[in-house]
Automatic annotation (TrEMBL):
CDD domains associated with the record: NAT_SF
Membrane-crossing residue ranges in chain numbering: none
Pfam family name, one: Acetyltransf_1
Keywords: Ribonucleoprotein, Ribosomal protein
Domain (N-acetyltransferase): residue spans on this chain: 5-170
The organism's place on the tree of life at top rank: Bacteria
InterPro entries: Acyl_CoA_acyltransferase (IPR016181), GNAT_dom (IPR000182)
Protein name: Ribosomal protein S18 acetylase RimI
GO cellular component, one term: ribosome
A molecular function GO annotation: acyltransferase activity, transferring groups other than amino-acyl groups
PROSITE patterns according to UniProt: GNAT
C-alpha cells in the first residue's frame, strides 16, 4: 500500500483528531515503560496553542491524518543551553510532539514525516533541523540515527534531560 503522504498546517478543525492521536501516543509511551509524556504534557491546550501559533502540522495519508507534529522556527529556549554542542548556529526548525495514529503504526510514517520536514526546511532556506527525545524512546532514537541525525548532547526540557540531535540540511 503506497498511498500519497502530504504535510500541511493543522487547522483548528483538526484539533480533536490530533488530540486523539496524541492520547494514543501517550498511552504507547506508558506501555513501553517510558516516562516521556506521562506528566500531563502534551495536552489539549498544547494542541490548541500549536495550531493558533502556526506550529501544528499534520501528515496525511490519502487525505486522512496519520501523524501530528509541531514545527517551530528558530525558537526553543531550552536549546540555548546544551551539554555538548550543536552542529550549527544558523536558522533551524525544531521538531516537537511527533505522534502517529495507531492505524498507521509500523508503516514507516515517522520516517516519511522526517522526509517532509527536510523538504519543508530546504524550501524555506533554513540551515538545519534540531530535535530532542527521551533517553528511553528507542523507536525515535533509531529513526533519528537512520535519517542521519547527529547526537549533539543533552538539553533540559519539559522537566527532564533529553538527547538532542541536529541535521544540517543546506
Amino acid at each position: 500500500m503506497n498511498l500519497e503522504t502530504q504535510l500541511r498546517k493543522a487547522e483548528i478543525t483538526d484539533k480533536d483528531v490530533i488530540w486523539d492521536i496524541l492520547q494514543q501516543a501517550i498511552e504507547r509511551r506508558r506501555k513501553d515503560g517510558s516516562t516521556q509524556w506521562q506528566q500531563g504534557y502534551p495536552n489539549i491546550n498544547t494542541v490548541e496553542s500549536d495550531i493558533e501559533k502556526g506550529f501544528g502540522f499534520v501528515m496525511t495519508v490519502g487525505g486522512e491524518i496519520a501523524v501530528y507534529t509541531a514545527l517551530i522556527l528558530n525558537d526553543e529556549p531550552a536549546y540555548s543551553t546544551i551539554e555538548g554542542a550543536w552542529l550549527s548556529n544558523g536558522e533551524f526548525v525544531v521538531v516537537h510532539r511527533v505522534a502517529v495514529d495507531e492505524k498507521f503504526a509500523g508503516q514507516g510514517m515517522t520516517k516519511k514525516l522526517f522526509d517532509h520536514i527536510e523538504d519543508f526546511t530546504k524550501s524555506h532556506g533554513i540551515q538545519s533541523i534540531k530535535v530532542d527525545t527521551n533517553f528511553d524512546n528507542v523507536a525515535m532514537l533509531k529513526i533519528l540515527e537512520s535519517k542521519g541525525y547527529t547526537y549533539c548532547g543533552e538539553v533540559y526540557l519539559a522537566g527532564g534531560i533529553r538527547k538532542a540531535f541536529e541535521k544540517i540540511i543546506i
